[in-house]
User: What shape does this take?
Amino acid sequence: MTATRTAPGDPDSPVRHLRVVEPAPAEVDVAAAETAVRDLLAALGQDPSAEHLRDTPRRVASALAELLTARSFELTTFPNDEGYDELVVARDITFRSLCEHHLLPFTGRAHVGYLPGERILGLSKLARVVELFSCRLQVQERLTSQIARWLEDNLSPKGVGVVLEAEHMCMSLRGVRATGSSTVTSTLLGEIRDDPRTRAEFFALTGHRA
Assistant: This one.
């Protein structure tokens, strides 16, 4: 990932923009993916030339490319002029990702919060950060940590908290077939981790017990 700080217009503007761009290696070779899906269908005993499967390789390749490609965005921050020192929490951010072990999706909700330092964040950007890291082959534990640490590195808050709850198709469709089960992971940094009252408040706001 590459990131550059820009301040359009007045160079002394208090508004800061951090442009986030996915790295080139994340790009999907759609044509090669189509060929691979066609070969996979044949390996599974299917006829890729059959009428109802003829367009399947293209559709699957396009779907995977969409799932694995995050949109670039600007992480807009503003000075915390009022000295706001309470938690900011965005709840129920829907996300979807692909399990790197089975290439099956897992979907769920993210709850992301931070304790502001000198700057505050445009709220919609919390969802964008979740998307940035979910649009790649993942495991839920890593995804949770990456969201939290990226916010810590780029916002410099007093604390960060991230809770993800998701259903994994690799559990509900195969193996134990635990339909309806959910996995919950969390990463806490700074004062949200170290201060018991702040930690308890964060979990209460996200609907979880500390």
User: Anything to note?
Assistant: The radius of gyration is 20 Å. The longest strand covers residues 88-99.
